Amino acid sequence: MRKVVMVGGAGTVGKVLHDGLSDRYEMVTLDQEVPEWVENGVKVDATDEAELKRSIPEDTDILINLLTVSGEKDLKDTDEFMKMTRVHFISSFYLMRAAVELGIPKVIFASSNHTTDAYEEGGDSLLGREITVEDKPRSKGLYGVLKYASEQISEIISREEPGGPAVFNIRIGSVHADEEKDVQEDPRLMKTLLSHEDLVGLFEKAMESSRAGGTYYGVSDNPGKPWSIDNARSELGYEPKRNAEQVVRREGGQ
User: Fold this and answer.
1) Cα(164)–Cα(72) distance, integer angstroms
2) Is residue 251 over pLDDT 80?
3) How many CB atoms lie within 10 A of CB 194?
4) pTM of the model
5) Within a 10 A sphere around the Cβ of 57, how many other Cβ atoms?
6) How far is Cα 68 from Cα 114, in angstroms, rounded to an integer?
């Protein structure tokens, strides 16, 4: 059973992945706090490079970067700016250096649709077509900028380091803990939802891929979705199973 280490894995995405994959992989969660549902977890401050590296098992097969932190007025307040940058960019660099030094063959980075959120409004693409990974990144805020910067630094290290890890960037749409409730209350989710089933399916396709890496949007096959999943289908074999409309029907008992 291969060992999968999720850094920042105590949140919603980490729990969904843990619950969906733990029967097929040895799942390890690293985070500042380790919740009760985690079977194999380690407390770690990912902004401390030495502590982070010590906490990653040497026999890790796949490293998943789920680090995130919320920020307010991060382009007006220096402390907030630095907090966001430490977690969303500098720690990504630390993770990649650890992967290289420990010989971990694959890194999956939980990127975000916010890398291109200037092209989307209310769940609708403003381009007159689905947004693709070929479109120039354009973000409304610091979060998306840092996510794209982390994609880039990870790809550079992967490419330039001899034997560097394969890097898969998943630009996640909307993942909610209580998706069946929230999708009925937020109209945007009808188009941007990445259902729990599809989140697990997409990440597992990346985990099992023999490709050298790639960048993909993570969204279910929702009618009117703003982002294209064509390359995830053709390159990874991703086949969405449950879209937002199906989530609503299940909630309604149909």
Assistant:
1) 35
2) no
3) 33
4) 0.96
5) 16
6) 13
C-alpha 117/C-alpha 140 separation (Å) is 6
DSSP the chain: --EEEEETTTSHHHHHHHHHHTTTSEEEEEESS--TT-SSEEE--TTSHHHHHHHS-TT-SEEEE------SSTTT-HHHHHHHHIIIIIHHHHHHHHHHHHT--EEEEEEEGGGGGGGEETTEETTSS-B-TTSPP--SSHHHHHHHHHHHHHHHHHHHSTTPPEEEEEEE-B--TTHHHHHHH-TTHHHHB--HHHHHHHHHHHHH--SSEEEEEE----TT-SB--HHIIIII-------HHHHHHHHTT-
Beta bridge partners of 213: 167
The answer to whether 51 touches 45, Cβ cutoff 8 Å, is yes
> Whole-number mean pLDDT of the chain?
96
Asked whether the predicted pLDDT for residue 252 surpasses 50, the reply is no
**Tokens found for residue 31:** 């985070």
Decide if pLDDT at 254 tops 70.
no
Question: Is the predicted pLDDT of residue 253 greater than 70, yes or no?
Answer: no
CB atoms closer than 10 angstroms to residue 14:
23
The candidate with the shortest Cα–Cα distance to 97, out of 143, 156, 147, 43, is 156
Give the closest residue to 209 by CA, choosing from 239, 169, 237: 237
Count of H-run helices and E-run strands, the chain: 10, 9
What would the pLDDT profile of 101-110 be if each residue is shown by its tens digit? 999 999 999 9
